[in-house]
Amino acid sequence: MVLSLNISEVNISLFRFVNDLGKEYPFLNPTFIFIAEYMVFLLALSVLFIWFTRDTDNRIMILCASIAFICAFIIGKVSGVFHSNYQPFVELTDVNKLIQKEKDNSFPSDHTILFFSYCFSFWLFKRGWSILWVLLAVLVGVSRIWVGVHYPLDVLTGILISLATATLIYFIFPKLSVTQTTIKIYEKYENNLLLRFKKTMGNKSKNS
Q: Where in this chain does the record put each Phosphatidic acid phosphatase type 2/haloperoxidase domain (predicted)?
């Protein structure tokens, strides 16, 4: 009971520290609002771009990252059944709430799970400069606290779940024959579609 209270106090104190930065440095608020709300679109575009480089290794990476996200998301929802809390702006006073959000269970952070599942997977497969993806995921996690919609514990739990699932998937799925087979089947149909498209365009150019 005492440990639970101490964790709760630390959780709130850390939240106040990060969230109050938005009051001290309001010129940074638009940046963190953008990161918290719209960086997900950059991630989606990046995933599509990487997939359509048509590099088999890149596609295995995206497939593994997507599986990691699905697994982490499910684990997150299950953990939310055993522990739940509303967003800070619901439970606390004087919260610097910068984005619109409906009242619901904020444990764990879905945004954090999404970004860390993909970004940490990218780092595992590519290493090197791909650490920038992890830094982006960290920024997203911090931004969710900054704008007042998640506690640090919501974000930390999302990180731990994502790191565990991404690491497990990285070491298991690329070696499975079903992974290689799935990619090969997809690429076979993709090549057929591209050939048909080229033939159609070629016939149109001849007729014109």
A: 61-170
